[in-house]
Design a protein that fits this description.
With 146 residues, this protein is mainly β. It has a domain of 51 residues. It contains one helix and three strands, in the order αβββ. Strand 1 and strand 2 form a beta hairpin.
Length: 146
């Protein structure tokens, strides 16, 4: 309690002390004016452009002299002709059909899933089947606890 009273009294004392942050200094008699008689105009003197690539004058000359002969002969590779079998056209294989399936599962927040499908196998007379699905949730809105 005593420390608190001391700290509060020090803060009040420092709050009422005068603070001079940026005081203007006295003029020392220096002139801060600049007078220009002639404005600055930069001038580049005329100069000759120099070439940076060397000039070469070679006095020796080389003259290539080629002599060659070409003997042409026909290229006759050996090959054997064999008959090709005729292609047989078969129908694509049919995918295997299953009579039924059941899918069960549970997800987040107690979300159950059930799916069932029952069908007959492949038949020329017809196809029949039944399909059912259930997907629900026990989620309460406005509350984070189930």
């Amino acid at each position: 309690m005593i420390k608190r009273n001391i700290i509060i009294s020090l803060l009040i004392t420092f709050a009422f002390l005068p603070a001079n942050a940026q005081v203007k200094k006295q003029d020392s008699g220096l002139k801060r004016e600049v007078t220009l008689y002639n404005p600055y105009k930069p001038i580049l003197p005329e100069a000759k452009k120099r070439s940076f690539l060397p000039e070469m004058s070679d006095t020796s000359k080389v003259r290539p002299d080629f002599h060659y002969n070409v003997r042409t002969t026909a290229f006759l590779p050996e090959y054997n002709i064999s008959p090709i079998k005729a292609a047989a056209l078969l129908p694509d294989p049919l995918a295997k059909l299953y009579k039924s399936y059941v899918k069960l599962g549970i997800g987040n927040y107690l979300t159950p899933l059930a799916e069932i499908s029952i069908t007959n196998e492949r038949s020329k007379k017809g196809a029949f089947g039944i399909y059912g699905r259930h997907f629900s949730s026990k989620l309460r809105l406005g509350s984070h606890h189930p």
